[in-house]
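Section 3.1: Structural characterization of target chains.
Under the original work plan, the team committed to producing a structural model for every single-chain target entering the pipeline before any wet-lab resources were allocated. The record below documents one such target. The sequence was received from the expression subgroup and is listed exactly as submitted; it comprises 154 residues.
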Amino acid sequence: MKINPVEYIISAIAGAFFSFFGILAIPLALLIPCNMIDYFTGLAASKVNGQKITSDKSFNGIMKKVLMYILIFVGFGIDCMISYVAVTLHIEMKFPMLFAAMVASWLVINELISITENCQSAGVTIPILSPVLKIIKKEIESVADMPKDEQQEK
């Protein structure tokens, strides 16, 4: 059996990634390729529609992607503070990265919606994905924006 060092390196990187990020690893592992696919489908849609692709437009798109990771970091900060308080008060936390994972998951849904919109803009018909993703997004947002009366009942 021949040892392939590339496989070991990939395994080590993947193991370190999942070990470090824990519950946040899955949404991050989805968000990273979704960001790239969204960026390139956006470029393709612009090209197909005859729109001029400028460096300013590309820079703005990249900055939006960077800001997504800042939002996840904010969620991570909230999680750290909640975890700190929970440890101080001896409260067991079942979901240590809840806010960061929720933000990352919501961003993945947004990126998937954007990818389907870019594909539709380029002329690809998507009869199922777009409506389903929009329903999921609406459900997530409705849970996050519950009126005060509903919050007290639950």
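The chain has a mean pLDDT of 86.
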